[in-house]
From TrEMBL:
It holds the Pfam family RNase_PH_C. Keywords: Nucleotidyltransferase, RNA-binding, rRNA processing, Transferase, tRNA processing, tRNA-binding. Homohexameric ring arranged as a trimer of dimers. It comes from Deinococcus aerius. The lineage of its organism: Bacteria, Thermotogati, Deinococcota, Deinococci, Deinococcales. The gene is rph. This is Ribonuclease PH. Residues 1-12 have a biased composition (Basic and acidic residues). PROSITE patterns: RIBONUCLEASE_PH. Belongs to the RNase PH family. Phosphorolytic 3'-5' exoribonuclease that plays an important role in tRNA 3'-end maturation. Removes nucleotide residues following the 3'-CCA terminus of tRNAs; can also add nucleotides to the ends of RNA molecules by using nucleoside diphosphates as substrates, but this may not be physiologically important. Probably plays a role in initiation of 16S rRNA degradation (leading to ribosome degradation) during starvation. Residues 1-30 are annotated as: Disordered.
Protein backbone atom coordinates (compact mmCIF):
# COMPACT_ATOMS: atom_id res chain seq x y z
CA UNK A 1 0.00 0.00 0.00
CA UNK A 2 1.34 3.42 -0.97
CA UNK A 3 1.43 6.01 1.83
CA UNK A 4 -0.47 9.26 1.22
CA UNK A 5 1.26 12.21 -0.44
CA UNK A 6 3.39 14.35 1.81
CA UNK A 7 1.62 17.44 3.10
CA UNK A 8 4.29 18.77 5.47
CA UNK A 9 7.19 18.87 2.97
CA UNK A 10 7.91 18.18 -0.66
CA UNK A 11 9.34 14.88 -1.85
CA UNK A 12 12.96 16.10 -1.93
CA UNK A 13 12.96 17.88 1.44
CA UNK A 14 14.29 16.06 4.55
CA UNK A 15 12.34 16.00 7.79
CA UNK A 16 13.00 18.77 10.35
CA UNK A 17 16.33 18.31 12.11
CA UNK A 18 17.14 19.43 15.64
CA UNK A 19 20.45 18.84 17.42
CA UNK A 20 21.81 19.67 20.87
CA UNK A 21 25.46 19.00 21.69
CA UNK A 22 27.09 18.46 25.07
CA UNK A 23 24.03 16.70 26.51
CA UNK A 24 25.98 14.06 28.47
CA UNK A 25 28.12 15.57 31.26
CA UNK A 26 30.24 12.43 31.57
CA UNK A 27 31.25 12.08 27.90
CA UNK A 28 33.99 14.18 26.24
CA UNK A 29 31.66 14.57 23.27
CA UNK A 30 27.91 14.03 22.94
CA UNK A 31 24.80 15.04 21.01
CA UNK A 32 21.06 14.45 20.96
CA UNK A 33 19.60 14.56 17.47
CA UNK A 34 15.99 14.47 16.30
CA UNK A 35 15.19 13.83 12.62
CA UNK A 36 11.44 13.96 12.26
CA UNK A 37 10.29 11.65 15.04
CA UNK A 38 13.49 9.58 15.08
CA UNK A 39 15.73 10.43 18.05
CA UNK A 40 19.35 9.42 18.63
CA UNK A 41 21.71 9.93 21.57
CA UNK A 42 25.37 9.77 20.53
CA UNK A 43 28.44 9.88 22.78
CA UNK A 44 32.19 9.82 22.19
CA UNK A 45 34.55 8.06 24.60
CA UNK A 46 38.35 7.76 24.56
CA UNK A 47 40.38 4.81 25.78
CA UNK A 48 44.12 5.34 26.24
CA UNK A 49 44.84 1.98 24.71
CA UNK A 50 45.39 1.13 21.05
CA UNK A 51 43.23 -1.39 19.23
CA UNK A 52 45.22 -4.64 18.88
CA UNK A 53 45.66 -4.24 15.12
CA UNK A 54 46.88 -0.63 15.53
CA UNK A 55 49.77 -1.26 17.93
CA UNK A 56 52.93 0.43 16.73
CA UNK A 57 51.11 2.46 14.07
CA UNK A 58 51.09 6.23 13.73
CA UNK A 59 47.36 6.68 14.13
CA UNK A 60 44.69 5.63 16.56
CA UNK A 61 41.47 3.77 15.86
CA UNK A 62 37.75 4.54 15.97
CA UNK A 63 34.94 2.05 16.42
CA UNK A 64 31.18 2.55 16.61
CA UNK A 65 28.39 0.78 18.44
CA UNK A 66 24.64 0.98 17.76
CA UNK A 67 21.67 -0.13 19.85
CA UNK A 68 17.93 0.38 19.90
CA UNK A 69 16.05 0.77 23.17
CA UNK A 70 13.18 -1.69 23.74
CA UNK A 71 10.45 0.98 23.34
CA UNK A 72 12.11 2.87 20.52
CA UNK A 73 9.42 1.26 18.32
CA UNK A 74 5.63 0.99 18.52
CA UNK A 75 5.88 -2.48 20.05
CA UNK A 76 8.45 -3.42 22.65
CA UNK A 77 11.46 -5.18 21.17
CA UNK A 78 13.63 -7.46 23.28
CA UNK A 79 16.72 -5.69 24.58
CA UNK A 80 19.63 -6.33 22.25
CA UNK A 81 22.08 -8.49 24.14
CA UNK A 82 23.52 -10.51 21.26
CA UNK A 83 26.55 -8.63 19.95
CA UNK A 84 26.46 -10.76 16.79
CA UNK A 85 22.99 -9.50 15.80
CA UNK A 86 23.25 -9.24 12.01
CA UNK A 87 21.42 -5.94 11.52
CA UNK A 88 23.23 -4.26 14.40
CA UNK A 89 26.61 -5.50 13.17
CA UNK A 90 25.90 -4.20 9.66
CA UNK A 91 24.90 -0.75 10.97
CA UNK A 92 27.92 -0.57 13.28
CA UNK A 93 30.24 -1.27 10.35
CA UNK A 94 28.58 1.50 8.33
CA UNK A 95 28.89 3.95 11.24
CA UNK A 96 32.53 3.04 11.83
CA UNK A 97 33.45 3.63 8.19
CA UNK A 98 31.59 6.96 8.17
CA UNK A 99 33.23 8.28 11.33
CA UNK A 100 36.73 7.08 10.40
CA UNK A 101 36.36 9.06 7.17
CA UNK A 102 35.61 12.15 9.29
CA UNK A 103 38.42 11.94 11.86
CA UNK A 104 42.16 12.45 11.39
CA UNK A 105 43.22 9.57 13.61
CA UNK A 106 46.87 10.66 13.56
CA UNK A 107 45.88 12.97 16.44
CA UNK A 108 44.93 9.94 18.54
CA UNK A 109 47.94 7.66 18.27
CA UNK A 110 47.85 4.94 20.91
CA UNK A 111 44.16 5.62 21.64
CA UNK A 112 40.81 4.17 20.65
CA UNK A 113 37.75 6.35 20.11
CA UNK A 114 34.29 4.88 20.68
CA UNK A 115 31.18 6.46 19.19
CA UNK A 116 28.00 5.01 20.74
CA UNK A 117 24.71 5.67 18.96
CA UNK A 118 21.54 4.71 20.83
CA UNK A 119 18.10 4.93 19.23
CA UNK A 120 15.64 6.50 21.67
CA UNK A 121 12.72 6.72 19.23
CA UNK A 122 12.54 5.04 15.81
CA UNK A 123 10.43 6.28 12.91
CA UNK A 124 12.57 5.32 9.94
CA UNK A 125 16.12 6.33 9.06
CA UNK A 126 17.76 5.28 12.33
CA UNK A 127 21.11 4.50 10.72
CA UNK A 128 21.32 7.75 8.77
CA UNK A 129 20.21 9.73 11.83
CA UNK A 130 22.93 7.89 13.79
CA UNK A 131 25.55 9.07 11.29
CA UNK A 132 24.38 12.66 11.74
CA UNK A 133 24.20 12.36 15.55
CA UNK A 134 27.60 10.67 15.74
CA UNK A 135 29.18 13.39 13.62
CA UNK A 136 27.60 16.04 15.88
CA UNK A 137 29.07 14.28 18.93
CA UNK A 138 32.49 14.15 17.25
CA UNK A 139 32.21 17.87 16.46
CA UNK A 140 31.44 18.52 20.13
CA UNK A 141 34.43 16.36 21.11
CA UNK A 142 36.77 18.14 18.68
CA UNK A 143 35.62 21.59 19.82
CA UNK A 144 36.22 20.71 23.47
CA UNK A 145 39.75 19.49 22.65
CA UNK A 146 40.54 22.77 20.89
CA UNK A 147 38.95 24.94 23.59
CA UNK A 148 40.84 23.12 26.35
CA UNK A 149 44.17 23.41 24.53
CA UNK A 150 44.61 19.64 24.30
CA UNK A 151 44.79 19.98 20.52
CA UNK A 152 45.91 22.94 18.45
CA UNK A 153 44.70 21.58 15.10
CA UNK A 154 41.09 20.72 14.20
CA UNK A 155 40.99 16.89 14.10
CA UNK A 156 38.05 16.42 11.73
CA UNK A 157 39.00 15.97 8.08
CA UNK A 158 35.50 15.94 6.59
CA UNK A 159 31.98 16.91 7.52
CA UNK A 160 30.06 13.66 7.22
CA UNK A 161 26.34 12.97 7.07
CA UNK A 162 23.79 10.55 5.66
CA UNK A 163 20.31 10.46 4.17
CA UNK A 164 17.82 7.82 3.09
CA UNK A 165 16.14 7.96 -0.30
CA UNK A 166 13.61 5.68 -1.95
CA UNK A 167 11.25 5.04 -4.84
CA UNK A 168 7.57 4.74 -3.95
CA UNK A 169 5.95 3.77 -7.20
CA UNK A 170 7.71 6.09 -9.63
CA UNK A 171 8.03 8.89 -7.10
CA UNK A 172 11.43 9.61 -5.56
CA UNK A 173 11.36 10.69 -1.91
CA UNK A 174 14.21 11.60 0.42
CA UNK A 175 14.46 10.96 4.17
CA UNK A 176 11.82 8.25 4.42
CA UNK A 177 9.84 7.78 7.59
CA UNK A 178 8.79 4.28 8.64
CA UNK A 179 5.49 4.29 6.73
CA UNK A 180 7.32 5.25 3.52
CA UNK A 181 10.27 2.95 4.03
CA UNK A 182 8.11 -0.16 4.43
CA UNK A 183 6.44 0.31 1.02
CA UNK A 184 9.39 1.63 -1.01
CA UNK A 185 10.17 -0.53 -4.03
CA UNK A 186 13.83 0.51 -3.78
CA UNK A 187 15.78 2.44 -1.19
CA UNK A 188 19.31 3.58 -0.42
CA UNK A 189 21.13 4.91 2.61
CA UNK A 190 23.71 7.37 1.31
CA UNK A 191 26.71 8.48 3.39
CA UNK A 192 28.63 11.45 2.00
CA UNK A 193 30.52 14.63 2.87
CA UNK A 194 29.23 18.17 2.64
CA UNK A 195 31.40 18.52 -0.49
CA UNK A 196 29.41 15.76 -2.18
CA UNK A 197 32.09 13.07 -1.85
CA UNK A 198 30.57 9.63 -1.48
CA UNK A 199 31.57 7.35 1.41
CA UNK A 200 28.98 4.60 1.10
CA UNK A 201 25.65 3.72 -0.52
CA UNK A 202 23.77 0.86 1.07
CA UNK A 203 20.46 -0.61 -0.08
CA UNK A 204 18.75 -2.08 -3.10
CA UNK A 205 15.54 -3.05 -4.85
CA UNK A 206 12.69 -4.53 -2.80
CA UNK A 207 10.09 -5.36 -5.48
CA UNK A 208 12.09 -6.49 -8.47
CA UNK A 209 15.07 -4.92 -10.22
CA UNK A 210 15.39 -1.24 -11.01
CA UNK A 211 17.19 0.43 -13.90
CA UNK A 212 20.65 1.97 -13.68
CA UNK A 213 19.04 5.35 -14.39
CA UNK A 214 16.76 4.94 -11.37
CA UNK A 215 19.73 3.98 -9.21
CA UNK A 216 21.63 7.08 -10.31
CA UNK A 217 18.57 9.22 -9.51
CA UNK A 218 18.46 7.74 -6.02
CA UNK A 219 22.16 8.23 -5.43
CA UNK A 220 22.17 11.82 -6.71
CA UNK A 221 19.15 12.76 -4.61
CA UNK A 222 20.74 11.12 -1.58
CA UNK A 223 23.97 13.12 -1.91
CA UNK A 224 21.98 16.34 -2.31
CA UNK A 225 19.88 15.51 0.76
CA UNK A 226 23.04 14.90 2.80
CA UNK A 227 24.24 18.37 1.84
CA UNK A 228 20.95 19.94 2.95
CA UNK A 229 20.96 18.07 6.27
CA UNK A 230 24.58 19.00 7.00
CA UNK A 231 23.94 22.67 6.29
CA UNK A 232 21.13 22.61 8.86
CA UNK A 233 23.23 20.57 11.29
CA UNK A 234 26.11 23.04 11.18
CA UNK A 235 23.72 25.96 11.60
CA UNK A 236 22.74 24.47 14.97
CA UNK A 237 26.13 23.24 16.21
Amino acid sequence: MTPPPRTDRDTLTPRPLNVRRGVNPHAPGSAHLRLGRTEILATVSVEDKPAPHMRGKKEGWLTAEYAMLPRATTDRQARERNLQNGRRHEIQRLLGRAFRAAVDLRHFRGQTLYVDCDVLVADGGTRVASVLAGYAALHDFADRLIQSGKLSEWPLLHTVGAASVGLIGDELRVDLDYAEDRVARADLNVVATDAGLLIEAQGGAEEGPISSAEYVRLLTAGVEAVGALLRELHRQL
